[in-house]
Amino acid sequence: MATHAEFNNTTAATEVAATFGSQIKGRTVVITGISPEGIGAATALAVASQEPANLILASRTESKLATVVSDISEKYPAVPIKSIILDLASSDSIKSAAAEINSVADHIDVLINNAGLTLKSRQPVKTPGGTTVDLQFSINHLGTFLFTSLLLPKVIAAGANAPKGSTRVVNVGSHAHRLSPIRFSDYALYRAPYDVPEAERPPTGVSDAMIRSIDGYPGFIGYGQSKTANILHAMELKRRLEKAGANAIAVAVHPGTIDTGLSRDLDEGGRKAIEGTAVNGVFKTLDQGAATTIVGAFDPKLAEVEVEGPLYLADCQYRTVLGAHAADPVAAERLWAETEKMLEITCL
Ligand SMILES: NC(=O)c1ccc[n+]([C@@H]2O[C@H](COP(=O)([O-])OP(=O)(O)OC[C@H]3O[C@@H](n4cnc5c(N)ncnc54)[C@H](OP(=O)(O)O)[C@@H]3O)[C@@H](O)[C@H]2O)c1
């Protein structure tokens, strides 16, 4: 089902933003993960081009954030931009970033959870609730979940006065979700990809390059698990918002394959495996890479799309997920409950 049939894998975010200019003008938008050579900066630039009321940019490296803010301000001096330091690996940083945002914004129309990373070496971390998890899961999912939970009252507040379905949380997931279901029995990836219950194994057809381990650590499987979590989080959040009667929806997107800082920790083999996922071997530009996020955040027609599973987009169009495990309502509910326990919080 196409909401804007003219958009495809080469459409640029700036073009999409111009199409949805009236949805962006006057709105308060929060975006995480802002670095000069990343999708987050391209997303922020596209939003800034359409006169948002407030652009709140949260990321972990102050100097990179400052460079992006200065670039955007130079191009769009009238857009009010607030920079926030946010390290999704630290509960304290997440809480203080969320408190700062909550103190300056009385509502949040769109929250774009774009920050994320990949790792090639094992870095287990203990959650506040005592579960040991992979650092990719901790940053990409747990940090994003906590940050979202703390901002949710302001998202719900925005929805109270907004057209139906225009208030949104967008999780930047990935087609890499197909690499792994949630490893409920082994969040830290101590066991080999197939040495877990059947429902937690990579589905048939995943290439050896993606399943490979370095020093016993299957990094891409860990990344895949974290991206499945981003999608299940969006799916369950959408369901719970609806159940709570809130006028807000949650969307997950796959940006495409873009040459960014994401591969910085990978070895040559890892980078080659990523290159292999680019359509016809061609990377999207940053502007093209941000396009699907802008559709997810602002296309008014998405509010009318009714789906059983996650509202998932790729190449600017609604798509079914590539792995059924990322559309499983039982897994989504279980992940939510286990995430709350890991973080020692209750959300919605
Ligand atoms: N590039 C692709 O082909 C591709 C494909 C599918 C999905 N994605 C997804 O797209 C999103 C953006 O990635 P990208 O490709 O633009 O990569 P990127 O250039 O590395 O950008 C990731 C951003 O997240 C930030 N970040 C990383 N760890 C963080 C933490 N602990 N706390 C706060 N911020 C943190 C990074 O900040 P620093 O630079 O300061 O570390 C950076 O600003 C990610 O969620 C990624 O999984 C990318």
Automatic annotation (TrEMBL):
Q: Which InterPro entries match?
A: NAD(P)-bd_dom_sf, SDR_fam
Q: Which UniProt keywords apply?
A: Oxidoreductase
- Output the superkingdom of the source species: Eukaryota
Q: What is the lineage of its organism?
A: Eukaryota, Fungi, Dikarya, Ascomycota, Pezizomycotina
Q: Sorted alphabetically, which Pfam families does this protein's record hold?
A: adh_short
GO terms of molecular function: oxidoreductase activity
- Source organism (scientific name): Cephalotrichum gorgonifer
* Record-linked Gene3D superfamilies: NAD(P)-binding Rossmann-like Domain (3.40.50.720)
Q: Does the keyword Lipid metabolism apply?
A: no
Family of the protein in this entry: Belongs to the short-chain dehydrogenases/reductases (SDR) family.
This chain belongs to the protein called Related to short-chain dehydrogenase
